[in-house]
Write a structure and sequence with these properties.
By secondary structure, the chain is mostly helical. The chain has eleven helices and two strands, in the order αααααααααααββ. The protein has a two-stranded antiparallel ribbon with strand order 1-2. Strand 1 and strand 2 form a beta hairpin. Helix 1 packs antiparallel against helix 2, helix 1 packs parallel to helix 6 and helix 3 crosses helix 7. The relative contact order is 0.15.
Length: 328
């Protein structure tokens, strides 16, 4: 129809040339990668509190602290991942190399659930536990900012109308992997034990690395262009330093422009546009200050709610719920 725009059709229906077809198939590999990784992470997270308490004999209070420490670490590491990808490795190599490290961490954690190791030494399960959780938290956090950004790199300038549709599908895949792992892994644990419950996510992580690497020839891969993180921190450090100097200085220093706040102390080293961006970001961040309180409570579904579910009547019309699948 005359005047019809391709954005009203199905994503990628307008793609005709070979390069665009490669982009289309590359996006599919990225989505499958994310689905497998989310399945693994949420599967491990779903059985973790009771594994700590029932299998390793850690009390509920300490088990809760370990679970939340692990989650907090995993969600701090995206800062590191973004910096490494932007400054050194690029998104593709960061995702691929870290996915291999992720596999190692999952294997280490799975080894702690093998009864033979528990018999060999009282220390072995705990060393394996903390080492495995550290590697997994580092890996999943490092990957987190890179995958969605790498997906965005696949769009050419004439494909911007597809971004919304493709990202809706991408986040559906994220949710599908999360829900599937949360519901399925507790069932596997009930039927086959913790060893199999940890082995299955490890297998999915191997699939994550394999699927992502297979799609390499289809991806648009950009080299690292440098991270704005360190520059932003430097701008803030200079501004704070100058602010303290002005507060404690005996001499009053006149501003050349009264509208310039402390953020602009770095004007001699950075463009005004960069400092404007940092100032705006800091203002926006104030909105997020209450968020840690919300998430610290919300994330109780991965720990205290599971322990509470053990004490509840979990039969619904004769159908027994697996109590640690209630973390969903």
């Amino acid at each position: 129809m005359k005047g019809e725009h391709p954005q009203h059709g199905h994503p990628y229906q307008s793609i005709g040339n070979e390069e665009d077809k490669h982009s289309k198939h590359g996006v599919k590999f990225i989505m499958l990668t994310e689905l497998c990784e989310r399945f693994s992470f949420y599967g491990l997270r779903g059985v973790m509190p009771l594994y700590l308490n029932e299998f390793l004999g850690i009390n509920q209070t300490d088990s809760t602290a370990i679970v939340h420490g692990f989650i907090m670490f995993a969600y701090i590491c995206p800062l590191f991942g973004g910096y490494i990808a932007d400054s050194f490795l690029g998104k593709f190599h960061t995702i691929f190399y870290v996915s291999l490290i992720y596999c190692v961490g999952s294997a280490v954690l799975a080894s702690t659930s093998v009864p033979l190791f528990a018999k060999l030494s009282h220390l072995t399960p705990f060393w394996g536990l903390f080492l495995g959780l550290f590697i997994i938290g580092l890996a999943t956090g490092t990957m987190k900012p890179c995958v969605s950004a790498f997906l965005g790199d696949q769009f050419k300038p004439h494909q911007t109308h597809l971004i919304d549709s493709v990202f809706h599908i991408f986040y559906f895949m994220v949710s599908l992997g999360s829900v599937s792992g949360t519901l399925l892994i507790p069932v596997v644990r009930t039927k086959f034990g913790y060893s199999m419950a940890f082995a299955l996510p490890a297998v999915f992580l191997v699939l994550t690395a394999f699927i992502f690497r297979v799609g390499k020839r289809l991806y648009t891969i950009h080299p690292p262009k440098g991270s704005i993180l360190m520059a932003s921190l430097h701008i803030i450090a200079i501004g704070v330093s100058e602010k303290f100097k002005s507060v404690f200085s005996l001499k009053k220093k006149e501003k050349s422009d009264p509208s310039l706040t402390w953020h602009y102390a770095a004007l001699s080293k950075y463009p005004k546009e960069n400092i404007d961006d940092v100032k705006t970001t800091l203002q926006v961040l104030t909105i997020f200050l209450p968020f840690p309180l919300f998430w610290s409570l919300y994330s109780q579904y991965s720990s205290t709610w599971v322990f509470q579910a053990k004490l509840m009547n979990r039969n619904l019309h004769g159908y027994p719920f697996i109590y640690f699948s209630l973390s969903f």
